[in-house]
Amino acid sequence: MTSASLIRWAGLEERRRRGASRGLLSLPGVVLSVVLGSLLGGEIARRLLLATDANMLQTAVGASHIWVAAGICGFTVGIFGAPFRIYWRHDSKILASLPVPGKSLFALALWRSQRSAALVCLALACALVPLGVLTDMEVALRHLLLLALGYAGSAWLGPAATLAAGAVVASDKAQAVIASMSGEFQAPRTSWLGIMPGLAATALALTIMAAAPWALGARPVGGSIALIAALGLVGPAAMLLWAWSKADSVIPAAIREVAALDQEILAHVERSGPSLLERSFYKLTLSSAKARLLAFKDASLSRRRFPSPYFMIPCGTAALWIVAGTQPDGYLPWAGSIYGGLVVYAIVMARRSWMPPVEIPRLLRTLPIGPAQISRAKGTQVFLRILFIGVLGGIPVVLRAPEILSAVIWVGLSTLLALVVSLRREL
C-alpha cells in the first residue's frame, strides 16, 4: 500500500468517525481552530482596547506573552500527540498485522502531525489579527517566525522523536543497555514514547521563548535571531530526513512491539504498579477493598500504557516553581498556560481510565463491584491527580503572583473545571 492510498483511506475513515460523533467532535478541525483563535484574539483585543496611551506598550507585551504561551501549549500538545498518531491509534493493531511499508506508515503519521500543526497555526494566525490592527503590523508579522518555528517542531521534530522512541522500544539491544545502566530501577519500555517527545517539546519551547523578544523588537536570547531560526528550522528538518531514512526498518517492528505490549497474555509481562503516593492515598481514602483493587489496577495499567503524564506532570510542576521563583514578565500568562496544560492532562487521563486498554466497560459490568465503588475508585484517582497539581503547582503560583486575585481566579476556575469535567462519566 502506497503512502497516498493509505492517507486517502485514513482520511475517509476519520470523516466517517466524525460524522458519527456528536457535539464539538463532529465539527471540522478548521472550524474549531478559527473559533479558538477568535476567542484568543478577542482577549488580546480586549486588553489592547482597554489600555491607555501610557501603558499601551506594556499591554502589547503582555498580549504577546499570552499569544506565545498559547502557541507553546498548542504545539507541545501536537508533539505529544505524535505517539498516538503512529503507535496508539485505534487502527494501529490492524496496521501492525498488515504488510504495509514502514515509510507509508510514517508518511501517514507525518501527514496527521502536519495537519495538527497547521490547525494550531491557523488559530494563532487568527489571534494575531487584533495585535497587528491595534498595535503595529510589523510586530504581528514578526510573530509569524514564531509560527514557523512552532510548525517545524510540531510537524517535523515530533514524528522524528517518536520514531526514535519506537526504535528504543523495539530494540532488545537498546533495552539491554538501558537495563545495565539503570539496575533494578527500570521503567516500562513505553516510557520512551513519553520521554523522547518530552525532550522534543522542551527544545521547541526553549526555541520559541528565545525568539519571542525579537518579535517585539528587542534583542533575542543569545543575540542572533538568524542562529535561532536556523536551529529551529534546519534541526527539525534534518531529524525528519533521518527518520524518513529509518522508517522502513523501525516503524513496522515498533508498531508490532507496542501493540504486543497491550496484548501480552502468555508472554513475559513488564510489571508496573502504582507509585508509593498512589498506593498510600488509595489505602487512606478508599475503605472498600474492591475499590482499592480497581484503583491499583487502573494506576498500574495507566503507568504502563500512558507514561507521558507521569513524566510531564512533575516536570510541569517544576516549571511552575521556576516561574514562581523568577517572576518573569508576563507572569500570569506563563504560569497560567503551564497550569492549564497540566489540568488538561489530568482531564485526558481521567477519560482514559474509562477506555481500553485501561478499562473495558463491558467486562467491568460483569465484576462483583458495585457502581458506587467503581465511581469512588475512579473519582479518587482524579482527585489525587488534580490535588497534586493544585497543591504543588497552583499554590506557589498564587502566593508569588503580582496580581493574587487574578491568579486565584485562574487557578481556582481551572481546578474546578478539571474536577467537574473529569468526574462527568457514567458507566
What would you say this structure looks like, in words?
- This protein has 427 residues and is mostly helical.
- The protein folds into two domains: 1-270, no CATH class; 272-427, no CATH class.
- It is 79% helix and 0% strand.
- The chain has 17 helices and no strands.
- It has helices spanning 3-20, 29-50, 56-80, 82-86, 92-96, 102-134, 137-170, 172-182, 192-215, 225-263, 276-285, 289-305, 308-326, 331-352, 361-364, 371-400, 404-423.
- Helix 2 (29-50) runs antiparallel to helix 3 (56-80).
Brief account:
By secondary structure, this protein is an all-alpha fold. The protein has helices at residues 3-20, 29-50, 56-80, 82-86, 92-96, 102-134, 137-170, 172-182, 192-215, 225-263, 276-285, 289-305, 308-326, 331-352, 361-364, 371-400, 404-423. The model is unreliable at 264-269 (pLDDT under 50).
Give the helix level as a range of percent: over 70%
Mean pLDDT across every amino acid position: 82
Largest sheet: none
N to C succession of SSEs: HHHHHHHHHHHHHHHHH
Counted by DSSP, the helix tally is 17
Number of domains: 2
Oligomer: single chain
Percent strand: under 5%
Low-confidence stretches: 264-269
How many strands? 0
End-to-end gap:
39 Å
**Measured on Cα atoms, how large is the radius of gyration?**
22 Å
| Structural class designation | mainly alpha
Q: What would you call the shape?
A: globular
